[in-house]
Every structure is written in C-alpha cells, then in structure tokens.
C-alpha cells in the first residue's frame, strides 16, 4: 500500500514498536562476560550494534532470537532487548508472569544498590500497552458466562486494589520506557504519582475522575506526546451537588507539568447525560506545541493558550459554537499547514472565515465526518484560493455527491492526494452508489493527482448468482469467490480508466481494494473493509 501523503506528524501509538534500547543501556554498566570478550558482534561500536539489532523482527525472527538468547548472558540480554521492547500488560497469564518480573526488579534494586541479581528485563522495555479488559473480551459459553457473573465483583475489586497498583508501580520504574498506552484508569493520587514518575515521553490514557482533591507538587514532566481522554466517574457525577461540573482542575494540573515540552496534544472530555459541564479553562504556555487535536469544549483562555503561531497541525471540533467563534476571530495561525474539521453536523451557515484567514500556508485540509452539500459547497470555492493545497479529504452527507460539488472540486488543480466519500459511514451497510464515469470525467482537470481514494462506495450487480446464499446446501464459498474475483476485475477496469486520465496516478483505493499503479500497470492488494483514509493521507 502507498505511503502517507502527509508525513510530518507520525503517531507513536500506531507506528511499529520503537527501536530496541542500546546495549550499553540494557547492560547497565556490567562488564562483558568472559565468553563475550572475543565476540566480534558484541565488540562492535554501540551505534553499529544497535543498527544490527534494529533489523530483527520479534515475530518473524523469533527462532533466531531464541538461539541468540541461549549463547550467554550478554547475547541473551541483546535478544531480550528486541523480544521485550514492546509488551502488553493485561490479565492474561503471560502478562501476569511478565508483570511479576517487572514488579520484582525494582524491589531487588532497592536492596542491591540499584542493581538486579540477573540481567534486567525491565531495562529492555520501551513500549507498554496496559489494559484491564482481558477477561471482559474473552468468548464464553453460557456456563462460563454464569461463572463469570458470579465472580465479576471480586475480580473488579482485585483489579482496583491489587493488579492495577502493582502494574502502575512496575511501569513507573522502567528506566527506558518511551511509549505508554493505557486503558481507562480512575484518577487518584497514586495513579497520577505513578504516571508522572514514569520515564515515558509519549502517553495515551483515559482517566475517570473520582477524587476532586488531587494535589501534585510543582514538577517537570517531560512528555512530548499526550493523548488524554477524560470522563466523570458515574458515582461522582450523580452525587455532585454542583449544577455545572468543572474538570479544569485536572487538566491544569496535568498540562502545567508538561506544557513546556509538549509537541503533540490530543484532548477529549466526555460528559454524562443530564448535567451540564463547564468549558475547560487554563492559562499556560506551550512553546513547542506543533500538533493539536481538540474534541471538547474549551474556554477562550485555554484556546488562546493552545492556538499559538507555532502550531502546524490542528484537528478541531468545528461544530462547537464557542470554538468556531474563537477561531473566526483568531485570524491567521502563522505556521498552520494541516487543518481538519471534526465534529458532526456543522451548521450549513457556519462561518468559514478561519479558512480564508489561513489560505497562505495550508497544504492539507479535511472534514472527518459527513457534512451537508450546502455547507461543503461554501467551503470548496474558498479552497480554490489555496495555492499550496495538495491534500484533501471530504465526506458528504446523503447517499450521493452532487454534480455541482464535483465541478467545484475540479477547480482545486493543485491537489495531489484526494479522498472523497458519501453515504453511511459506519457499520456494514454502504449506500453510496458511485458513478465512476461521471467522477472521472468531471475531475479530469486535476492532472497532478498521485493518489485517489474512494471509501464506503457501493456497486449495483445485475449479473451472476446472489452474493449471500440462504440455502446451506449451496456452494456458498465458491459463490463468494466468484463474486469477489468478478468485483476485482470490475475495479481493475475503473483503475485503468482513471490511469488513462490522470497520468501521475500512483495509488487508488476503491471497492475496498488498494491498487498500486506504476507506469501503466497496477497491482491489487488484499481486501480492506476498514481502510482509514485519514491515516493514509495525513500519516496519523
């Protein structure tokens, strides 16, 4: 599949595991074993040795790493730096055993002057995915389900009182941890102390507010990436006497510690039904912030703190009136090059002054969710003045893209990467019956296109047997294979038609099939029912 069109903001949580920690780090100052002193591999400069180990894949090279681990202590630690650079901690038996080792090592360090008795496994861990959902997601028979119901209260209590605190303690002591991806945690003093004590530079976590009396001393938390989704604990929400819930205290506590180092910030806050919530408010400085995603209601003081001229990428819920009004009055954001409007149902008459104020530098624009043709037909003419616009992703509400909208798209001649979609955007049902002949003809002025993506498209059939046979005696799988191979053939014909019009085309996605195109030939890839156009286009 093709590479992202917009590479500037890689997502540490969706990328492959980070590179292994270098040998001098994982060896923790120990001398080489006697049997290692003549090894050409282990006596390479650390920088070169690190490059060698980076080329091992923990899964594909599993046997090779297992053999390397058996040579001696140093080779074993070298192998583990690759095998355990990314770990998952949940309720599974394997994860519980691993967590036991990670929990024991800091206890050993406290008793042996900072050293572990054996080579440290925790020193090899760079990426942790932690979740308490293992048992909740396991398939069960009726009997198992009944047994589960009988024990769920006890299990939940053990998770809160034993497993979660132990896991957080172990995580907070990992010396070379770089990426921490946590499932939902209930906020208390211990949770925040553990998170801020960890060595991670990139953190994604969901926090549920239970205690409003949290206090953290002034300290520096050198996070570079923070993806934070906050919600109210149901009990706290129900028993609060306040008519307006205010979570600003938590946001300010966390952001104050890391605002100086943050480069990427994603903000989400979920309210519960029945009680209004105050806009999040804080006044801080973010001198290094380059990527910002706002999916909640912010006070103007917070917006002013975040929307600095250094910002290069902005994902913002444009359906929130207060946010939209602030952006309209904000004027030009000097370095902004990527803008995506999120949020459902942006009003047809919503002001789009923000677009015209930032036309000089924006190279990529998109709407994350479907918007009305009336609104988009106001947006597209403004985009025609964007001389540097090369990446565009637009989703129409309704089951078709009006021809008038396609003609407006055709004026955006600077485009190199285009994604369009319409119809139902979730679930199995797709109801945008695309007319490729019309699209190809109308968009022909876009001669610079290198990638063209259609998602959630559907196709009528008037040939062959029905796709879904109800008769269990029929040759169901043969029928499915026949239909899919015919579909691929049809999609290939469309790719040929587009390639003849757009001579620079290198990649297409249509009919759930990716096509790589090179000098007039194309190769179809595996079916992808959940292709993420945004990730392809924007690299995030």
**Low-pLDDT regions:** 464-474
Helix segment tally: 17
Give the helix proportion (percent range). 25-40%
- Average pLDDT: 86
Radius of gyration: 27 Å
Principal-axes geometry comes out as: globular
List the topology elements:
Blueprint: H1 23-26, H2 46-54, H3 62-69, H4 73-83, E1 86-89, H5 93-111, E2 127-130, H6 142-172, E3 179-187, H7 189-197, E4 202-209, E5 225-232, H8 234-239, H9 248-258, E6 264-270, E7 291-295, H10 300-306, E8 313-317, H11 321-330, E9 338-342, H12 353-357, E10 364-367, H13 373-383, E11 391-396, H14 403-409, E12 417-422, E13 432-433, H15 436-442, E14 451-455, E15 457-458, H16 476-501, E16 507-510, E17 513-518, E18 521-524, H17 533-538
Parallel strand pairs: 1-2, 2-3, 3-4, 4-5, 5-6, 6-7, 7-8, 8-9, 9-10, 10-11, 11-12, 12-14, 13-15, 14-16
Antiparallel strand pairs: 16-17, 17-18
Organism: Metarhizium anisopliae BRIP 53293
InterPro entries: LRR_dom_sf
Protein name: F-box domain-containing protein
